[in-house]
Amino acid sequence: MNDHWRCYLMKSISTEPALNWLFIAAARGHDIVNTQEVVFLVSDVKYTRVVHVQGHGLMKIGLGHLERMLAGKGFVRISRSCLVSLAHIANIRRNDLGQLQASLRGRQETLTISKRFESAFKGFGV
C-alpha cells in the first residue's frame, strides 16, 4: 500500500483535528491502532517505531510530524527521539545517576527522560 493511501486512510478515519488512529506496518501486514493504545513512539533513522499494547510496528512518518498530529492526545516528548503516552506511565523516578526514568504500565521497559525535557514532569514531584 502506498503512502498516499495511508495518509488518506488516516485522515478519513479521524473525525477530530487530532489523529485518532495510526496505520502501521507490522510483521504480518498492517495494523490500524487507536492512539489510546499507543504506549510510546521512537524515531529510528527513516522510520518511527510505534509500540502499542498489542505489539509494535513501523511508520514512515517522522517523529516531529507525528508529535504535531498527536497534539492534545496526551503524548509528551521525553527526548529528541521519543514520545510517550502519559496514560501509560506507571511512575517516574530518578535512577542512581540522577536521570529521570519513566516506568510503563504492564511493560518491562523504562524510558529515560532527557534533561532538556524534564520540565514537563515538574508537577510529578520528582
TrEMBL record:
Keywords from the named record: DNA-binding
Gene3D superfamilies (alphabetical): LytTr DNA-binding domain (2.40.50.1020)
GO molecular function, one term: DNA binding
HTH LytTR-type domain: residues covered: 32-126
Designated name of the protein: LytTR family DNA-binding domain-containing protein
Species of provenance: Ideonella margarita
